[in-house]
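@channel sequence for tomorrow's demo:
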Amino acid sequence: MHVKCKDIMEALEEIAPPYFAEEWDNTGLIIGNRDKNIRSILVCLDVTSSTYEYAEKENIDMIISHHPLIFQPIKSIHVGDWKGRLISRIINKNICVYCAHTNLDYAEEGVNWHLARSIGLIEIKNLGEDCKAGKVGMLSPPQDLSGFIRNVKKSLRADSVKLIGSLNKSTEKVAVFAGSFDEKVLEFIASGTGNQCSIDVLVTGDIKYHAAVEMLEMGICAIDAGHFDTEHVIILPLVEKLKARFPGVDVKSCPGERGPFVYC
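structure tokens (generated this afternoon):
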């Protein structure tokens, strides 16, 4: 029996329900035909020229990305700019492109849940009733912060991280917020109630300078492990879920996918 794009979409929407997505987001089928037969899938964080070239070489029928290739409205598609050129190449090769973004962030076993698990947290819960993106969990046994940072770097395969706060502390209760840090999370952590009470350290990415200054003044300890490294943890679990659901489909990740920065 043929597996169609719409069958993959249905499975993805069970994993990351569309109603979890933020209103400003662009999720779902971005390019392609719902009725296309799918024999091979590539799961990645970003749809880039290198991702496409790998997909072309491997005869991929469908790309599933975390970040949407088309996010802001576009008025034209032409080969004079990189995105138009990339979209044109994808359409010409009849490759479907599907995005699961904030709905996958907020899913029960989504990006943040896998980030929490990957760095060794247990008893994982939502950071707060109105903050389903962030998670909080416990380290058992507690670790000194230097040791925890080493474990974070190893678990996320991060070349480096940035620390806000002092290394001289014990770490037991940890909050996570994958990808680009939302400064609204500070309100939940600062309130010090419920699940966010007495958090020892926050693991996140893309903390802006002024937010970092504010966190330092508020006494909030945070590890900025980068956007890519805090989100890429979802790729292999998503590959495995799709393999289990569709054993006749070749599902793979993009080898060597990395973020845009090189640390010198």
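heads up for whoever presents: Residues 145-156 form the longest helix (12 residues).
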